[in-house]
Amino acid sequence: MRLVSLLALIGAGAYVANTILGDMQNNPVRAPNTPTPAPTATPSPAVYVAQAEDAYWAGDMEAAIAAYQRALDLEPNQFDVYLELSRLLTFQTQPERGLEMAREALRRQPENARAWALLGMAYDWLGLPLDAIAACEKAVALDPTLPEAYAYLAEAYVDAGNWYAANAAIATAMELDPHNVDVLRNRGYVLESQGNYYGAIEAYREALKIHNLVYLHMAIGRNANALGNWTLAVQAYTDAVEADSHHVPALSRLGLLLLLTGDYDKAKINLNKALQLDPTFAEAYAAMGTLYFQQRNYEDAIEMLKPAIRYGEARARRRTVFLTMTLEDTNAIGAEPAGAEVARAVFVHPAALETPLRGTLEGEFGGSQVRGMVRFDVLSGRYTLEMQGLPPAPPGKVYIGWFKPLQWPERRPVRTEAIFPAPDGRVQFSGEVGRVKGPAIETYYTLALSYYLLDQCNEAMPYIEAALRLDPEDANALQTLRLCKQ
């Protein structure tokens, strides 16, 4: 009976170069005296910008992003393009890349209010609400009439738990421009975060009247889920896919909801399409693994749930923004940094998940200029530090590096082991951050239970342990542990 009840719980809640021949085929030798065709003109950056704007208003965010990026490839000094890319990439659940674009804009115009506001939004979506508030307040100081600055500020205040300030900021944004799609979206978010799901849905619908954007439909679906209205939720996610048929998160969310409502065939169609578009999208793997588990196909469930965890943890690592080096008491290294900051690196986020993050460490300590580099492979979790100019730590002190805002499953900040510089101030250090908070707990215990049902408890144990690190009192994880110890 305990196994049957566990199955029921999970079912309800889960979710080389070319060869010479090839080169000749692609670039055939011309016969003598054969006229050479006139070269095809390369489209100007303005053409690609126009294509991006058309795609955006048609709701095709990926096409808009691709066109803006082609425009930048031709002419990198297009300030407004960095702003548009920052906003769209953040909305496409790539806030780390949105952050890069906002930074690039600020390198060109350090006092631009909209760039600061977009930097704030990216920080907030990366889990750094206090940094977001500071950036948005800078935007407001530069331009007190910019409605988006107040809207993004309201969003950050919500995520920092300051409801009063959030309500005041969104009220100001609405006064400045009640027809701005970002203002209306964040009005919905403020209402949603306070539990007013009906009001939030209405705000998102008002925003949709201005622009049919996929993330607004998804927000309606999220609130419908909170209300337990699965019919409305399915319709909202269906509308999201119709607004942008290549939007991977929308396809994945629709697939998961169809799975939970028992429509396995349609669920599989949407999830397969999501994975074809993005073979690293963790949520789609997790939903597909749950689908196979509910069909008692445990081998295929494992084949889906393992990459769900691998890519889910990798994407969590990828959202690391800073590495800060602090000087801590040797016998009192806490869960949070408490000592003086010695150096800081701001990570650069390349487009590909497989490409490691890199950052330049800079600081000043003990009269010495601290310089160095950090490299962070998000797929493996391994990192390397190379530094110079770091003085020996005083007695009773030790250097620690902190990856922000990355967290371990216990929701504590990820940090390095103690770092000891050589007598000449040089550091060469490597390590691994290990498991991090990313995928939902259901992903771990469903994978563990799949192994258990195949009589492979040795394989199950690491995932049971990971689930219990996320929540030591989770009933499903504890039951799976008991089953494996019988």
Descriptive notes:
This protein is α+β, with helices and mostly antiparallel strands and 486 residues long. It contains 21 helices and eight strands. Among the domains are: 247-318, Serine Threonine Protein Phosphatase 5, Tetratricopeptide repeat, CATH 1.25.40; 319-432, no CATH class; 441-485, no CATH class. The chain starts with a helix and ends with a helix. The protein is globular and about 65 Å long. Helix 8 runs antiparallel to helix 9 (147-159) and helix 9 packs parallel to helix 11. It has helices at 2-13, 20-26, 45-57, 61-74, 79-91, 95-108, 113-125, 129-142, 147-159, 163-176, 181-193, 197-210, 214-226, 230-243, 248-260, 264-277, 282-294, 298-318, 441-453, 457-470, 475-485; strands spanning 322-329, 340-346, 357-365, 368-376, 382-388, 397-407, 413-415, 427-432.
Structure described in brief:
This protein is of the alpha+beta class and 486 residues long. The chain is 58% helix and 12% strand. The protein contains 21 helices and 8 strands.
The number of distinct β-strands equals 8
Fraction in helix: 55-70%
Main sheet properties: 8 strands, antiparallel
Task: Give the distance, in angstroms, between the N- and C-terminal Cα atoms.
Answer: 15 Å
Quickly count the helices.
21
Shape: globular
Q: How would you state the average pLDDT, rounded? A: 89
Q: Name the beta content range.
A: 5-15%
Spell the H/E element sequence: HHHHHHHHHHHHHHHHHHEEEEEEEEHHH
Pairing-aware structural class of the strands and helices? alpha+beta
